[in-house]
Design goal:
The protein is an alpha/beta fold. Helix content is 46%, strand content 12%. The structure holds NADP nicotinamide-adenine-dinucleotide phosphate (NAP).
Length: 311
């Protein structure tokens, strides 16, 4: 699994154990729902685990399974010989937790959700303090952690050598998807996918609002049709990528923007008929109409990307 684990040059490793089967110790700061799930996965896989949480009582379930709880973040980090994993609420809580903590020679893996700029700033911050740094965006919910069949994974970006050295350990709770040495790219991928998901949730919400008054409509059957349709149409992401890549926004267009803009009027009229406020759809409909009005009705959706960018 870890091609580099035998020849890595880990300046931080003070546990050069004589037992080659020994698992890398993990230090985990933050024991909310996600932290507990991560900790359980490492314990189940035999990794020695040291934990800290602001509210100490929350360490109980993990200490019962063999983790060692310590009183302060400084104590946890000082004892760390493997990755120091942060799974806290937000970037501000990372600052608060690591304030004044000596990070020299440590490998910091931040799984706290943040923005790309926060990820980059945190990487610079860690580097100034003598630590190697990886930022991560978790594409899973706690019940998926430690269960590879669920398909959960983490986007990582930042120090590639750190990732390769600890790949085997990081693969225990969820799959590893490295997206580059720019420490902001894990958050960028994470938030881009979650933002697209938010649009999908808005669409699903609108669709159920449309059918809700129809008491003889089978909701489960409708949900199945809806999920299948969204799956089929998600292929449009590749079409968009190809158009943006080539710069030819009419490339491969099967449903042009002018047609879609007209169909959108039917969507809004249907919403009104069904007593549904179309406000979840209207912002995007407006952007499509704006592009058509600019004279680009033969294009696909690629031109709308530039319309919502501010530079
Ligand atoms: N849960 C999910 O489905 C999910 C999925 C993907 C990513 N994530 C990300 O994973 C991270 C953790 O999520 P979670 O579900 O574990 O959240 P959570 O259950 O709300 O736990 C938050 C954790 O942050 C700690 N914390 C909050 N403010 C703090 C501060 N100022 N100083 C020190 N510690 C502080 C909390 O400590 P206390 O116990 O003392 O309050 C707790 O350990 C978040 O960034 C979240 O976006 C979560």
């Amino acid at each position: 699994m870890n091609a580099n684990s035998t020849d890595s040059t880990d300046s931080t490793s003070d546990t050069s154990t004589t037992d080659s089967s020994a698992k890398t110790p993990v230090t985990l700061l933050g024991l909310g729902d996600m932290g507990i799930a991560l900790g359980r996965a490492w314990l189940a896989a035999g990794h020695p685990l040291t934990v800290w949480n602001r509210t100490p009582e929350k360490a109980g379930p993990l200490t019962a399974e063999g983790a060692r709880a310590v009183a302060t973040p400084a104590e946890a980090v000082a004892a760390a010989s493997g990755p120091v994993v942060l799974c806290l609420l937000d970037d501000a809580s990372v600052s608060e937790t690591l304030e004044g903590v000596d990070l020299r020679g440590k490998d910091v893996v931040n799984l706290t959700t943040n923005t790309p700029a926060e990820g980059r700033r945190r990487a610079a911050w860690a580097s100034e303090r003598g630590a190697r740094f990886l930022d991560g965006g978790i594409m899973a919910v706690p019940p998926m952690i430690g269960i590879p069949e669920t398909g959960g994974y983490v986007f990582y970006s930042g120090d590639r050598a750190l990732l390769e050295q600890h790949r085997e350990t990081l693969e225990v709770p969820a799959g590893v998807t490295f997206v580059g040495e720019d420490a902001g790219h894990a958050a960028l991928h994470d938030i881009a996918l979650l933002s697209a998901m938010t649009g999908m949730f808005a669409g699903i919400t609108h669709a159920f609002a449309l059918v809700e008054p129809e008491k003889d409509l089978d909701r489960a059957r409708f949900a199945g049709l809806l999920a299948e349709w969204l799956g089929i149409m998600s292929g449009s992401a590749q079409d968009l990528a190809a158009q943006l890549e080539s710069g030819d926004y009419e490339e491969g267009v099967v449903s042009n923007l002018a047609m879609m803009a007209t169909a959108n009027e039917t969507f809004v009229a249907t919403a009104r008929e069904q007593s549904v406020d179309p406000r979840l759809l209207v912002p995007f409909i407006d952007v499509m109409r704006q592009r058509v009005d600019q004279g680009y009705g033969d294009e696909g959706l690629a031109g709308t990307v530039g319309l919502i960018r501010s530079e």
